[in-house]
Amino acid sequence: MLFQSDKPVDNRTLDQLAERAAALIAGAEKIVVFTGAGVSTESGIPDFRSPGGIWDRFDPDDFTYQKFISSASARHRQWQLLWKERLTETVKPNLAHHAVAELHRLNKLDCVITQNVDSLHQAAGVPEDKVFELHGSMRRVVCLQCHRRYTMPEVKKRLDAGEEVPDCEACHGILKPDIVLFGEMLPDEVFSEAASRAEHCDLFIVAGSSLVVYPAALLPSYATDAGTELIIINLSETPMDQQASITIRAKAGEAMSRIMQKLAGK
Ligand code: APR
Fold it and tell me: Does the C-beta of 174 come closer than 6 Å to ligand 1?
C-alpha cells in the first residue's frame, strides 16, 4: 500500500503520514537511516541541488579531485568558496538529527548511512560506530604527499589567520579534507559495510537526499530488493519514490519530529 504525497504536504496529511511512518518504526528494531545534505539545510548548511544550492552557484566540474590536485586556483576555490562556509562552529544539529538520535536511544537504530561530511549526526548523539560517512568527514585533513593528518580546527585556525590555501607544515604537500571529491572512489570498507546493513535492516528511511549520486544512491534499493519497506522524507521527488511505502514531501526536521511524537503516542 503506497501512502504518497507528491506536493509539500499540508498539516493534516503530514499528521496521517507521520502516523503511518510511526507504525512502521514501532514494529522495527534494525532501522537504517540514510541521509543527504537536505537534513543539514535546517542547520544553515546549503544543500547541492535545491534552487540556490551549491551546484546552482558553482560548477561541479571545477570541484573534482583531478582539478583539486592539479590546479592551485581550484584548491583556492575549494577552500575559500566551498569549505569555509561549512566550517563555522555555529553549525548545530537540527530536529532531524535529534530525531535520528532518539531512534538510537530507543534501541531501534541499526545505523546512519550519511553522504554528509558535517558530523552533525554524531553531534546529536549517534555513536561514532553507528555512523557510516560514505563521503568522508570535514573533521580531518590529510597531506596527500606525506599523509600527515591534521584536525580541521587546527587548519581552520590557519584559514582564520588569513592563509588562503593551507599546505602541509611538514612537507608543504597538498592538504585536503578527508572527504570524497567527484572522481574519487568511496572508502571501500565503509561502502561494503553500509551495503550489508541496508540488506539486513528491517526498515530503511531516506531523509534529505536527491538520490542521484552513485554508488550511494544504490543503497535504498539494497533494502527494497531484500523486501524491506522504504520511507522517503524529502522536499523534492527522488528516483526511488515509487519503491517507497511512504513518501513525505516535508522538511525533514518537522516530519521526523512529528513521526517521533506519534511514536511516543502524543
Ligand atoms: N527537508 C527535507 N528535504 C530537504 C530539505 C529539508 N529541510 N532541504 C533540502 N531537501 C532536499 C532537496 O529537495 C534535495 O532533494 O534534500 C535533497 C538534497 O539533495 P542534494 O542537494 O542533491 O544532496 P545529496 O543528495 O546529499 O547529494 C549527494 O552529491 O554533490 C554531491 O558529495 C555531494 O554528498 C553530496 C552528494
Answer: no
Catalogue all structural domains in the chain, each as residue range(s) with its CATH number.
Answer: 1-44+93-135+185-266 (3.40.50.1220), 46-87+140-179 (3.30.1600.10)
In SS3 terms, the chain reads as CCECCCCCCCHHHHHHHHHHHHHHHHCCCCEEEEECHHHCHHHCCCCCCCCCCHHHHCCHHHHEHHHHHHCHHHHHHHHHHHHHHHCCCCCCCCHHHHHHHHHHHCCCEEEEEECCCCCHHHHHCCCHHHEEECCEEEEEEEECCCCCEEEHHHHHHHHHCCCCCCECCCCCCEEEEEECCECCCCCHHHHHHHHHHHHHCCEEEEECCCCCCCCHHHHHHHHHHCCCCEEEECCCCCCCHHHCCEEECCCHHHHHHHHHHHHCCC
pLDDT for 1 equals: 38
Q: Which atom of ligand 1 is nearest to the CA of 237?
A: 15
Query: Does residue 82 line the site of ligand 1, with CB under 6 A?
Result: no
pTM, to two decimals? 0.95
Ranges under pLDDT 50 in the chain = 1-2
